[in-house]
């Protein structure tokens, strides 16, 4: 394979993979370089540092290779960072410096810290506009917020129905209590005259004389009681 003739040094540390490409590269080496790079950028969640500091390109066709490589890496949820610090390479990539991430070394990229990590997930910060989000992240955030709102509405509605049911039960019990009180008062008013005549007496007073078997015995008892008085 032609790619075996291309020497690309690979250094891997966890999720960081540094690929170092060197030498004078023209059309003759183009397909081999592309094949070799495609073989090395496999796997999601990685940071690929493509070190081009010692590379010299004699054809603009390599720009297309790097653009395709960038799109492929992004589709794998990974990141591609170009490493170089030379005027020649800055001039070579001048048309696409707004697309590629370029740093002088890995340490410089790491120093960018939180800002670059946020950019990896779609968050950006501008001095004038403040914090903004990419369209994909914005849709995800809006969906999440809507989900929270719907869940909160369902919880509040459910609790509202429960409170309404409990309140209705309390009102029904209160009305039932009022009816019982009225019925008791009505019975008390009806029994009052009978109690004055001695027809109705408290069971506590009757219990001391034993159980009365029939109305005749009861009337005799009332008569004897009246005479004793």
Could you walk me through the main structural features you see in this protein, from its secondary elements to its overall organization?
It is built from eight helices and nine strands. Among the domains are: 2-120, STAS domain (Transcription Regulator spoIIAA), CATH 3.30.750.24; 198-229. The N and C termini lie far apart (134 Å). The chain is rod-shaped and about 140 Å long. Helix 3 links the parallel strand 6 and strand 7. With 229 residues, it is of the alpha/beta class. Helix 1 (27-40) runs parallel beside helix 2 (61-75). The protein has helices spanning 27-40, 61-75, 87-92, 106-111, 113-120, 135-197, 203-206, 215-228, and strands spanning 8-13, 16-21, 23-25, 47-51, 55-57, 79-83, 101-103, 123-126, 130-133. The strands form three sheets. The protein has a five-stranded mixed beta sheet.
List keywords for this structure.
17% strand; Transcription Regulator spoIIAA; 229 residues; 5-stranded mixed sheet
| SS content category | alpha/beta
Number of helices: 8
Could you name the CATH homologous superfamily of the domain at 2-120? STAS domain
Determine the mean pLDDT: 77
Quaternary state of this entry equals single chain
**Which range best describes the helical content: under 10%, 10-25%, 25-40%, 40-55%, 55-70% or over 70%?**
55-70%
The percentage of residues in β strands lies in 15-25%
How would you describe the shape?
rod-shaped
Write the element-wise H/E pattern from the N-terminal end onward.
EEEHEEHEHEHHEEHHH
- Alpha carbon gyration radius: 47 Å
- Ends apart, CA distance between termini: 134 Å
Uncertain segments: 123-131, 204-212
Number of strands: 9
CATH topology group of the domain at 2-120: Transcription Regulator spoIIAA
CATH domain class of the domain at 2-120: Alpha Beta
Strand order of the largest sheet: 1-2-4-6-7
Sheet having the most strands: 5 strands, mixed
CATH architecture of the domain at 2-120: 2-Layer Sandwich
């Amino acid at each position: 394979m032609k790619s075996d003739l291309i020497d690309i040094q690979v250094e891997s540390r966890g999720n960081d993979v540094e690929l170092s490409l060197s030498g004078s590269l023209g059309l003759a080496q183009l397909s081999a370089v592309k094949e070799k790079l495609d073989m090395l950028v496999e796997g999601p969640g990685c940071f690929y540092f493509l070190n081009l500091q010692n590379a010299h390109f004699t054809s603009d066709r390599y720009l297309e290779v790097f653009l395709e490589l960038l799109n492929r890496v992004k589709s794998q949820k990974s990141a591609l960072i170009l490493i170089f610090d030379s005027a020649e390479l800055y001039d070579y990539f001048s048309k696409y410096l707004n697309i590629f991430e370029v740093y002088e070394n890995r340490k410089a990229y790491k120093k960018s810290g939180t800002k670059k990590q946020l950019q990896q997930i779609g968050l950006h910060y501008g001095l004038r506009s403040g914090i903004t989000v990419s369209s994909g992240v914005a849709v995800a955030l809006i969906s999440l917020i809507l989900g929270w709102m719907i869940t909160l509405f369902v919880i509040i509605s459910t609790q509202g129905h429960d409170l309404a049911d409990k309140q209705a039960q309390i009102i029904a019990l209160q009305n039932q209590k009022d009816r019982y009180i009225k019925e008791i008062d009505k019975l008390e008013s009806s029994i009052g005259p009978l109690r004055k005549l001695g027809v109705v007496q408290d069971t506590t007073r009757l219990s001391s004389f034993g159980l009365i078997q029939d109305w005749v015995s009861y009337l005799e008892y009332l008569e004897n009681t009246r005479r004793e008085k």
